[in-house]
Each structure stands twice: as C-alpha cells, then as structure tokens.
Automatic annotation (TrEMBL):
The lineage of its organism: Bacteria, Bacillati, Actinomycetota, Actinomycetes, Kitasatosporales. It holds the Pfam family AAA_31. InterPro entries: AAA_dom (IPR025669), DNA_Partitioning_ATPase (IPR050678), P-loop_NTPase (IPR027417). Gene3D superfamilies: P-loop containing nucleotide triphosphate hydrolases. This is ParA family protein. It comes from the Bacteria. SUPFAM superfamilies: P-loop containing nucleoside triphosphate hydrolases. Residues 115-263 form the AAA domain.
Length: 381
C-alpha cells in the first residue's frame, strides 16, 4: 500500500515529551541504529491504526522537536482530535508504542573480544577526557559492557568520576604492562554506579607511576614490548567487555605508541572496527598537533606493518560566535577527514566535572550528551 504522504518531504513538529520518555527514545533509537524522526514516524503510523491506548503521564514534559512527513503530520493531528486526546498525549502514546514494540536487542559477547577505541591528540586541552568518558557512557547506556581506561598520568578522568588515583606503590595498569604487578588487572576495575549504565561501565583508574611508563618502556630490552605492552596487559579482560575505551595522554611517546598499536585493526576484524578518534579544537594549533600525531600513526603503521584506523575528528568546545577563525577551522577539519561530531562549548560538561558526575547522568538531554551518543552510534554501526 502506498503511503498517503511523501517520507522525503518533512516539516518540523514541536511538542512536549516527558524527559524520561524522550531520553528512552534517544537511547533506543541509537541502540537500534534508527533515526529518531523515523522511529517517531513508525510509532505514529502504528498508533493511528491501533485501538485506544492507556494514557501516558505527560506531566513535567520538556520541549521535543522532530520532522514528520507533511501529510502524516496533518492526519495525525486530526486523529488526535477525533480520539479526544491532545497532540502531546497522542505523540507520547505513539512514542511509547514504538518503544514497546522495539525492545533492546539482547547483548551477545563478541567472539573476537572487545573493540578497542582510543581518544588521542598530542595537544592537551582539546577534550580527550570528556569525549572518551561521554562516549563510554553512551555505549554503556546503549546496553554494551564498557571498560574505560584512564591512560593519562595526570588522572583527570579518574578524578572527574570522583575516584582517587592509585598510589605509587599500588598495583596499576602501568605495573601490569611492565610485568611488575601482582594479582589480576581486573582487580583494579571500579564500577560507575549510575542508573543509566549500572553494571555495564567500569573504570580502570590512573596511577601516579604512569609518569614513569615512557622511560621504563624506552629502556626495556624485550623485543616489541614498547608496542605490545598495553595489549598484553588487557588481554585477560577483552572477552569480558564489548568495548574498551582509552583516554590517552597528551604525548607522542612510547605510551602513545602502545595505545595506537592496541587500537590497530586485528587480522580477524573488519576495517573501522577499532581505531582512534582525534578530538580537536576549531583553531590552528590543533591542526599543527594533528600533523605530528598523523605522522606518528603512519610511522608506527609502516614499522609494524599494521593498519591503525583513524575513525574521525571530534571538534570539541565549538562556538560559531567566535567568528571566522572557528567556522573556517571547522570547514578545514571537514575537508581533511570525517568530522564525526561537533560538540558545542556549553556549561553542562564543566558542571558535571565539578560535581563529579557522568555527563549523561547529569545532563542527559543536553546537546553535548547527544553529541556523545552520535559518536557512540558511529562506533556501533
């Protein structure tokens, strides 16, 4: 049967939805790889042809906008009037109907182990920590089991979640990489206990001894330890997780080499399955830093005969009000490669860090949170 509307011709629809329902819709659509406007369209089509549904509590609803096919929009409004419900109530029922008929796919462990996603840039202050944390949260929110590694000796990620760095004499990831640790690396993991991803997101905290890692890797006499140290340390955990996300240090040393090698495309993997996202700013110094990182990636790829996938740029703290410098720089990144997301320079992330809360729990409906989900969707697609 031909639809009485053209799905390519859409008009903007503005209404209200309860925040919990709006957030559930965003997460489920991301889990299933469906655009929100298509999910809402499917829900409305199903709602129009079904028996009356129980009311949805729409109290405290917040703004919600999407794009519906023009013909469908008009007919839906008429149906709401005929059924004696408000447009906001009809929309809420349609969204609830879509959610109930599109359950989350059951997670099955990957036979090849976790996918490895690293966030790296030699330049500091570009948002590596916020991007790696936000994307790990979004992946866990989608139902994946995620290990988030604070691989930066400054420990900003660890502190951001409200944890203390491991002591200099404690077991640590660095000691496991160097063969100096007792116990299991899994013993270092701490859970991020938030409702949206409880039981699925774990942090491997930073340790103060990580400042010594580069020097110790440089002096080791074992063949290829510089490149393979992180992989060997993390191998026992890989079957337990869907994704391992690494917040890399702002350096181009041996520590970065071992992270890059860890994110390479393995023999059994498809290209783009694992790799590096590169957070940048819309200004010239980020471009200079990227040139050095790209050179390091190419040299390591050639020396080791491996493929290290550059998964795209994440333009962070973007504000078009800064004028031509910002907008022209953004255009330059788009010309250079795939810009996966543009994260606006807004206060939610800074407030979340100050309060030591995950962004997707503190401000789940913010533009920054949506950008993290967009990157996560790129990862899982």
């Amino acid at each position: 049967m031909t639809a009485p509307y053209d799905p390519e011709e859409r008009e903007k629809v503005v209404s209200k939805l309860p925040s919990a329902l709006r957030r559930e819709l965003k997460v489920r659509a991301a889990q299933l790889g469906i655009d929100i406007k298509d999910a809402v369209t499917e829900g409305i089509v199903a709602w129009r042809s079904c028996d009356p549904l129980p009311p949805v509590d729409t109290s405290g609803g917040g703004p919600f906008s999407t794009y519906l096919p023009a013909g469908l929009y008009g007919e839906f409004k008429a149906d709401c009037k005929a059924k004696g419900v408000s447009f906001a109530q009809g929309l809420a029922q349609a969204v609830r109907l879509w959610l109930d008929s599109h359950p989350t796919a059951r997670r099955t462990p990957r036979p090849t182990g976790a996918r490895r996603i690293i966030f790296g840039n030699q330049k500091g202050g570009v948002g590596k920590t916020s991007a790696s944390a936000g994307v790990a949260e979004a992946l866990a929110e989608m139902g994946n089991k995620v290990c988030l590694i604070d691989f930066d000796p400054q420990g900003h990620l660890t502190k951001q979640f409200g944890f203390d760095m491991l002591g200099i004499d404690d077991p640590s990831l660095a000691k496991h990489m160097l063969g100096e640790a007792k116990g299991e690396v899994r013993d270092l993991l701490v859970p991020i206990e938030e409702k949206a991803f409880a039981g699925r997101l774990f942090l491997l905290p930073a340790c103060k001894d990580a400042f010594l890692l580069d020097a110790k890797l440089a002096t080791t006499r074992q063949v290829r330890v510089k490149e393979t140290a992180l992989e060997k340390a993390m191998e026992p955990l890989e079957k337990q997780f869907d994704f391992i996300v690494v917040d890399c240090p702002p350096s181009l040393g041996y520590t970065m080499d071992t992270a890059l090698y860890y994110a390479r495309t393995r023999d059994e993997e498809e290209e783009g399955t694992s790799g590096i996202f590169i957070p940048v700013l819309a200004e010239d110094s980020s471009a200079d830093a990227y040139d050095m990182l790209d050179e390091q990636i190419q040299e390591l790829s050639n020396d080791m005969d491996v493929l290290i996938g550059e998964l795209g740029f994440v333009v962070n703290m973007y504000d078009s009000r800064r004028g031509w410098v910002a907008t022209s720089s953004l255009d330059g990144w788009k010309e250079l490669g795939d810009v996966v997301a543009v994260i606006p320079d807004q206060s939610e992330q800074r407030k979340a860090v100050r309060l030591k809360q995950p962004l997707l729990s503190y401000a789940p409906d913010s533009e920054q949170a949506d950008a993290m989900r967009k990157i996560a969707l790129k990862v899982v697609s």
